[in-house]
Design a protein that fits this description.
The structure holds two protein chains of two kinds.
Chain A: E1 4-7, E2 10-14, E3 19-25, E4 29-37, E5 43-49, E6 52-56, E7 59-64, E8 69-74, E9 83-91, E10 97-99, E11 103-108
Chain B: E1 4-7, E2 10-13, E3 19-25, E4 31-37, E5 44-51, E6 54-57, E7 64-66, E8 76-78, E9 87-94, E10 103-104, E11 108-112
Parallel strand pairs in B: 2-11
Antiparallel strand pairs in B: 1-3, 3-8, 4-5, 4-9, 5-6, 7-8, 9-10, 9-11
Classes of the chains: A mainly beta, B mainly beta.
């Protein structure tokens, strides 16, 4: 079993819908990262969080350390949000990232 | 502009040849990383370097080698010993290790036939 599990693997939405992507992990962590990978392959960091909630524009990331779970929410989704969203954790035992397999999001106009 | 560059974007090689992928950053970051991405799998760490002249093996280092002679450069050599070298390779850097955001390059897609 992977230490970082994401769900769903694939998600199709209509423009304007509220989207939630989930990440569960089975190890102790010092931080959790949400990344976005565009169709061309480039990756950008969206959030790094160790507790609570962060918001940037239409994106919101939350984490529940006790339940070992994080969610990424996109409000008022747009076709330009179509990308792969990747969850990664920094284990407390080291600083390296362990990655989930990603969630492919497609937002249709 | 500050950032990470990888070159080339696409690379084709014959089986049995070594090939070196370039990664350069002008962010003045101490730490640099090489990841491999295969379809349907998460990114996997090949090598990382926390400081110039030092580097450590990641989870899948066999068949790869790196050097870190300059702070801004972290080239990856894919040797003929790597059994399945065809993949998408991503380089990243961060200001430090532990609690720092990683910045990624655009990636190099390597095809070996």
């Amino acid at each position: 079993k992977n230490e970082v599990e994401q769900s769903p693997q694939n998600l199709t939405a209509q423009e304007g819908e509220f989207i939630t992507i989930n990440c569960s992990y089975s190890v102790g962590i010092s931080a959790l990262h949400w990344l976005q990978q565009h169709p061309g392959g480039g990756i950008v960091s969206l959030f790094m969080l160790s507790s609570g909630k962060k918001k940037h524009g239409r994106l919101i990331a939350t984490i529940n350390i006790q339940e070992k779970h994080s969610s990424l929410h996109i409000t008022a989704s747009h076709p330009r949000d179509s990308a792969v969203y990747i969850c990664a954790v920094e284990k407390t035992s080291g600083s390296r990232l362990t990655f989930g397999e990603g969630t492919q999001l497609t937002v249709n106009p | 502009d500050g950032g990470i560059t990888q070159s080339p974007k696409y690379l084709f090689r014959k089986e049995g040849q070594n090939v070196t992928l370039s990664c350069e950053q002008n962010l003045n970051h101490d730490a640099m990383y090489w990841y491999r991405q295969d379809p349907g799998q998460g990114l996997r760490l090949i090598y990382y370097s926390q400081i110039v002249n030092d580097f450590q093996k990641g989870d899948i280092a066999e068949g790869y080698s790196v050097s870190r002679e300059k702070k801004e450069s972290f080239p990856l050599t894919v040797t003929s010993a790597q059994k399945n070298p065809t993949a998408f390779y991503l380089c990243a850097s961060s200001a430090g290790t532990g609690g720092f955001e990683q910045y990624f390059g655009p990636g190099t897609r390597l095809t070996v036939t």
